[in-house]
Amino acid sequence: MHSAETKGGKNGAPQNPYVNENYLAYVRSFAQPTKHFHNCWRAFIVGGLICCVGQFLRVVFETAVGLSGDELAGAVSMALIFLGCLLTGLGVYDRIGKAAGAGSIVPITGFANSVASPALEFKSEGMITGLAAKMFTVAGPIIVYGVVSGAIVGLIYFFIGM
After folding, report:
1. Cβ neighbours of residue 95 under 8 Å, at least 6 residues apart?
2. Which of 33, 84, 121, 157 has the most crowded CB, counting CB atoms within 10 A?
3. What is the CA radius of gyration of the chain?
4. CA distance 150 to 40
5. Which of 77, 79, 78, 111 is closest to 93 using CA atoms?
6. What are phi and psi of 14, to 5 degrees?
7. Helix axis angle, 108-121 to 92-100, nearest 10°
8. Taking the CA of residue 55 as centre, how many other CA atoms within 13 Å lie in the half-sphere pointing to its CB?
9. What's the pTM?
10. Domain ranges of the chain
C-alpha cells in the first residue's frame, strides 16, 4: 500500500493517490443530479404503454380477424415491429426514446428501432455498402448472442432429457 492510501480521506476512508478529488468536485459542480426514480418511472410508464398497444393489437387480431395461437403471436409481433420501424423512420421513436430511456428499448419495438436507425443513417452510402451493411451494426450482436445462447440452452435441455 502507498502511504497516500493509508491516510484517511473523506469519512475516514483511504484515499486513492490516482484520483484528484478537486477535479471530481469541479466536474460534479457542472453535472446535474440524476433523477433515478423519475427516470425509472418514465421508463416503466412508456414500456407499459408499448405493451398495452401490443395487447390492444392482440385483442383486435383475435376478435376482428379471428387469429389464434402462433398466428396471433406472429401477427402482433409483426405489427409491433412495423410500428417501431415506421415511428423510427418518421423520427418519432427517437423522441420517445429521449423521454422514456430504457422503457423504449426493452420491448420488441426497441429492437426494430435498433435495426432501422442505422439503416436510415447510412442509406446515403448506397443499398449495399450503406443500408445493407450497416443495418445490423447494433442488432447484429444481439441476434448472434441470442441464437448462440438459445442453441446452448437447447443442447443442455437435450442432454438433460436423455
Report:
1. none
2. 84
3. 24
4. 29
5. 111
6. -65, 145
7. 130
8. 6
9. 0.63
10. 1-31, 36-160
